[in-house]
Amino acid sequence: MAPNSLFAILLRSPWWISIGIAVLFFAVSHALLSPELRLFGAAGGLPFLGIGIVACWRQWRAPSPRRIEQVTLSLAAMSWPDFARVLEEGFRRQGFAVERVQGAADMRLQRRGQDTLVSARRWKAARHGEEALQSLQQQARSQDAVASAYVALGELTPQALRFAQEHRVQVLQAPELAQLLRGVSLPSP
Fold first, then answer.
1. Could you state, in order of their start, the residue ranges of all structural domains in the chain?
2. Is 38 exposed, middle or buried, given 0-12, 13-18 or 19+ CB atoms closer than 10 A?
3. What is the pLDDT of residues 32-65, one digit of tens each?
4. Contact (CB, 8 A) for 98 and 109
5. Would the pTM of this model clear 0.85, i.e. be above it?
6. Class of 65-180 in CATH
7. What would be one Pfam family of this protein (predicted)?
8. Cα(107)–Cα(84) distance, rounded to whole angstroms?
């Protein structure tokens, strides 16, 4: 789905907006169309109803801003061995087999015969550049990994963000880490 399509925008918006559009389709169809055409007019709202349900489900499951802040502070205070253990546990809870590797990537995730390489060692850096993502992508390509992920609590440069989008490198920042580590015991900051 294109990031700026109507449905992509609605998925990022509050769920009730999509549901409201679906109700509007139904009301306008009922008010303006003849009885034999009302059902067809109202059916135009079904995609919006579906998007509203998906958005509601995603937003209900998303971590709160307070939880994101707590996770960020806790992760920023960790040493690399502790952070790696917590991250491994989060990935295992998602159904991945986790193996430590060397190079630009720190972990190899395996699920259903497909590999994902994860670079996480620089998670505390305040700013992340394109070079680290390029190295990760090169290692993923050389090892036939189907995906790659980069973990960063700090911000990515505009070039790094563009590179991640163009090469489909998943960037795991505070909100994604809070979601991944749901249910994982973290030390208090």
1. 6-61, 65-180
2. middle
3. 999 999 888 889 999 999 999 999 988 887 788 8
4. yes
5. no
6. alpha beta
7. Mrr_cat
8. 9
